[in-house]
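Lest this sound abstract, we let one protein speak, letters for residues, whole numbers for local backbone shapes, and leave readers to judge:
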Amino acid sequence: MPNSKVTLLAITELGGYPDFTSLYKNTGYEVVKTDSVRKAVKLIRQHKPAVIVSEFNFQSDFRDRTSSLETVLSSAQGVVDAKMIVFYEREYQHQYARFLERFEVFASLPFPLDEKDLQCALKQALVE
């Protein structure tokens, strides 16, 4: 019987929140994980995930970008049509809003993360 699970790529650069791997799996995803943007770009090409979950980590030292998440999304364009679920810090909402002007995100979840909101977004991503 073929695997009917949908692939989810979880990118955890900084972390500091619970590991949601079991939630991802219980919601019906095959999970691929990384802690590096460089590795994420490679994994996107290899696995073509339907959903990518990542953090928006504002980096003021970037001249032309707001975060490394832009690198991930730019490299995914034309390779996969993944739904992005992004975790962000409320204190960086202004910078995150700039990011949203250039990139489409399926769901944005502020820290501290509400597991029920995440589960709802994951379920909705499966049906849309």
About this structure: The mean pLDDT is 88. The chain has one domain: 6-127. The first helix runs from residue 21 to 26. The first strand starts at residue 6 and ends at 11.
